[in-house]
């Protein structure tokens, strides 16, 4: 059964109806419409924790979607899934690809910073302060860029930058 027929709550059903109407009205190609449909199904599956299904939909959307800006969001969501599965290296690969297509994607910059910060914390726990400093500095650089793009977001990161003298 197609995912758009399985949505069982009011908000999901409403979003699906509105998205379907927009797909019919917008002057886009058949492939772009199909890509959006796969992307929408991927988001729905991802929100339900159905990561394998979400990835299948995102990969199909990537195959069909020609627009770099739209592709950046697909890549970002693929990165989110890998991060959720603890695959930080793979997640970083997808976040970097998303940024190549859309350098103004602050959420990708933030998530890269979070991963570097996490790795810095691990280095501290392993008594590797030099490596930790490098990783924390990288986290700070990515957070600064995310904050530059979205200055009212990432308050915790802003506080961390101040506290650590990295602002």
From TrEMBL:
GO biological process, alphabetically ordered: photosynthesis
Subcellular localization is given as: Plastid, Chloroplast thylakoid membrane
Annotated Gene Ontology cellular components are: chloroplast thylakoid membrane
The topology of this chain with respect to the membrane is: Peripheral membrane protein
User: InterPro entries from the entry?
Assistant: PSI_Ycf3_assembly, TPR-like_helical_dom_sf, TPR_rpt
Tell me which UniProt keywords the record has, alphabetically.
Chloroplast, Membrane, Photosynthesis, Plastid, Repeat, Thylakoid, TPR repeat
Q: Any keyword Transmembrane? A: no
Plastid found in the keyword field: yes
Judging by the UniProt lineage, the source's domain of life is Eukaryota
Q: Output the Pfam families linked to this UniProt entry.
A: TPR_1, TPR_8
The TPR repeats are at 35-68, 35-68, 72-105, 72-105, 120-153
| Protein family according to the UniProt entry | Belongs to the Ycf3 family.
Q: Which HAMAP family match?
A: Ycf3
Q: What does this protein do?
A: Seems to be required for the assembly of the photosystem I complex.
Name of the protein this chain belongs to: Photosystem I assembly protein Ycf3
Q: Which organism is it from?
A: Avrainvillea mazei
State the taxonomy lineage.
Answer: Eukaryota, Viridiplantae, Chlorophyta, core chlorophytes, Ulvophyceae
